[in-house]
Write a structure and sequence with these properties.
The chain is an alpha/beta fold. Helices cover about 60% and strands about 10% of the residues. A five-stranded parallel sheet has the order 2-3-1-4-5, sandwiched between helices. It is globular and about 40 Å long.
Amino acid sequence: MLKVTISGHPGSGTSTLVSLLCETKGWSSLNGGELFRQEAKRRNMSLSDFGQLCKEDLEVDRQLDALLKEEMMRTDDEASSIIESRLSGWWAYKLGLSTPRIWLEVDDIERAKRVQAREGGDLNSIIEANKQRSKVDEQRFDELYGLLPQQTEPYTHIINASDLNPQEVLASVLDILEE
């Protein structure tokens, strides 16, 4: 059964947080970004090219989002405890699920540094690629659903994680979960 949603822009630390939560709590998770990356890879496309395809063929995005929503509604023993995606907080909100919906806010430079540490590359190029990806994604989400992931409406908690290490973010979320 769904216990929490975790959302944030690429490089904000959502994947690291989910991994730590799963380890700490013994929970399972579903990563929307991983679904996105797997589909891009399956199609032999870069993330930005796949994002562009999603913008041009809105049905691709709708199918991926439908999978996330279905998982959120599951109540059996195999259901994911954590759903991580930029729109998971929105979906839980729109589905009326009373679960903590957390957004990790991280400034652009710190996000780029985190992506660089994970994937390598030139920092300025990563900053620009992140901006382009966000622009394409925001246009797509606005066209599809009339919303932006970072709008605060659906989130029960927003954590500014720019200056926090993974353990500090985890501690903040564990405090939220114990409320």
